[in-house]
Amino acid sequence: MMYFMVYTADMKVRHTERQFPMLERMFSDYLNPDHELLRAAKLIDWDGLHEALSFYYSPLGRSGKPIRLMVGIHILKHRYSCSDERAVEELHENAYWQCFCGFNIFQKGQILDASSLVKFRNRIGTEGMKKVEAVLLQTWTEMGLVKTKRVSVDTTAQPKNIAYPTDVDLCHRIRERIVKEVKSIRKEVNLRKTFRSFTRTGKKVLLRAKKLYRNNPRMRGASIKRLKKMTHRVVNQAARIVNTLYARGYNEMGRKLNQLVLLGKRVVDQTEKVLSGKVPQKRLYSLHELNVAAIKKGKSHPSCEFGSVVSLSMNEDGLILSHAEYQHNISDTGTMGRVINGIKENTAQRPLCVGADRGFNQSPQKQERCRRRWGVKRLSIPKKGKHPHPNSEACWFKQSQKQRAKIEPVIGHLKSDHRMGRCRYKGASGDTANVVWAALAWNTKKITSLHKQREKTSRSETERVAA
Description:
single chain; 15 helices; Nucleotidyltransferase, domain 5; alpha/beta; six-stranded mixed beta sheet; two-stranded antiparallel ribbon
């Protein structure tokens, strides 16, 4: 048995249940009810998620996959750190996964395809994912499982799924992409103009620049300069083909090739500036991820990461309450206000005390203005330099700093266990999506442990009173 969706007269999604076959038995007859996934499923407000995401479903056409199924498989995907394809395979094999996603009997046929996960993420967007996060946090707050008295804030870098960017690789790749596109155009359009691709020569020059002349800066620079000239010539040839395509009326082909030409010009220009000793502004680091930024965190390893900056807030129980993503290298002080406001949106409460490290330090006047604007009672941020903070010996300041240290291993778990160590979703929206699902995977695991611990405590108190 599974949920399926119907549409009422007010055009809202309602989920109903199919009747059980007479000879089928429910999962509860076979599965362990104390399993962590079954306990987590009971703590999620699936009806609230249906109400929040029904706006993204249209009453026309074929019905989409059930909301519980799609939200559940995304949480499981990031909880067990697997790809879309592997998550779908595990769903077809694992009874606990199926029960978590809303099935009450084991499904033997095809449930969904891996492409359905992509379509669901595109359908709800980042706003829909944030609604899922807000609904779950509000539900857990009403259950008394979320504390907001003492909160810790920290930032980290989320690398994109790109290769290490070098000028010689970018020149070689954009030249190959332009040549490949021109070859596909020639199959459909008769072009009289000659086109030199530099396929064999380009590979030789690339090999010299990356291997043979690795320890010879002068010869390596000469090889990069030669490869840049080849790329420049290919880009100019492709630009003339673009004009020809537009003149003949092949606008779609012309637009597609013109995008590669513009990227090629940008790569050639920044390579030329680097060779002349200048620092290019708005440097391009990847051909398929144009908004990737170079994040320098001041650490020995790695000294620089290419991706986005993520700001996280965590309460004293280890729950991620809010987060914010930035596509540029922003200072820590500029990220705190956004995550504090996010806590208010997700839990309808403001923290009393916020702790952070020295990277968030500002002048006392600025900190006081920010504290009043955010509605926070206390800020526990150590000062830089030899002179300590005036409240550094206070009990609440020390306790908040001890609490702040707990966010470091949580960030480590998010990166190593829940796919935040490398973002494989595309674009700025992909950065937000990856953090949302990683935080949900961590929170569902943490909230299950907290609820189990509270039940154990209440049970022991009941036994003590009875004795």
